[in-house]
């Protein structure tokens, strides 16, 4: 049934992309979505990891699991999102009470929300990102079974669904960073779109941090430099292999990262002429294959993995929906040298088999013991990746 729904969904979406392509030549549209329904327990052996690493299922029964946020007391909060109707409206809290690295309880702590993709935890409160609002649940861990009423922190964000779902996180400056995607595949957006903003924890003092960002659904701060790094998803309807997906570095506020005029390091989109010059844009720090849909990221600061992984960046690739053949559906590792992204490599693969996918990584969260959790919104599970010296 899910396969049918997904096929219908993208069949409905394709005409709009084709129309865009017809209006803005030269563009190409390819679309191939080949999901397969399997038992993820039975397919875990398909995941390929470097020697010494293993993968297991930490939690299941978490439909459309997206962004992960861990509290200091060990509660894992999970947002939800999907393109499918009815769209997910729930936020979950997960507890591993006995420390066996498997969830003991999965609780729904909020429902009836507008695509609550993003979650962040601070000072005992859970922050939730809807399409157009930031909400808060105070004293949430003391009331997991009967959470208090939601508090509206800020409701000034655009209500557009297109790229409106949000990843949120608190920065080293104590501010909550909130992206606003472009309300289109490609366009010259109004000033309220295609940016990363920030607000104080109480929702006041809204500021724009960076512009020229089509759709960022993952960011983190380097543990040494404290600089912001974020993924950005490139435009569609431009062929199988362009534009590249991006990992970007924003060491200061006020930078423009190109959209809709530039992609990757050097690719120019002539669809929208601009008087801005090359010096006005900040190129991508690292390019990734087109349409891989890079989402959540996590710098590794734990002690479980080998020393070579210290301060390296894990990136969830959700996988393509409009590329033929499909691509992505994996975890990348961005290698840093002198605190700057230098190269990329596959870290975990196997969710895509012979052109068909059975899982879609969405976010990455480090646990106190140094293991990594990975959400999979296709299967509604959360994996745990651990290491033991061979």
What do these coordinates show?
With 390 residues, the protein is mainly beta. It has a single domain, classed as Neuraminidase. 7% of the residues lie in helices and 35% in strands. The chain is built from 2 helices and 29 strands. It has helices at residues 2-23, 40-43, and strands at residues 53-60, 65-70, 76-80, 91-95, 105-110, 118-122, 125-129, 134-137, 151-154, 169-170, 176-180, 195-199, 207-211, 219-221, 228-232, 245-250, 255-256, 262-263, 267-268, 286-288, 294-299, 313-317, 330-337, 340-348, 352-353, 356-357, 361-366, 372-376, 381-387. It has a 5-stranded mixed β-sheet, with no helix packed on it. Strands 1-29-28-27 form a 4-stranded antiparallel β-sheet, with no helix packed on it. The protein has a 4-stranded antiparallel β-sheet with strand order 2-3-4-5, with no helix packed on it. The longest helix has 22 residues, at 2-23. The radius of gyration is 20 Å and the shape is globular. The N and C termini lie far apart (42 Å). Mean pLDDT is 93; it is low at 1-29.
Write the layout of secondary structure elements.
Elements: H1 2-23, H2 40-43, E1 53-60, E2 65-70, E3 76-80, E4 91-95, E5 105-110, E6 118-122, E7 125-129, E8 134-137, E9 151-154, E10 169-170, E11 176-180, E12 195-199, E13 207-211, E14 219-221, E15 228-232, E16 245-250, E17 255-256, E18 262-263, E19 267-268, E20 286-288, E21 294-299, E22 313-317, E23 330-337, E24 340-348, E25 352-353, E26 356-357, E27 361-366, E28 372-376, E29 381-387
Parallel strand pairs: 13-17
Antiparallel strand pairs: 1-29, 2-3, 3-4, 4-5, 6-7, 7-8, 8-9, 10-11, 11-12, 12-13, 14-15, 15-16, 16-20, 18-19, 21-22, 22-23, 23-24, 25-26, 27-28, 28-29
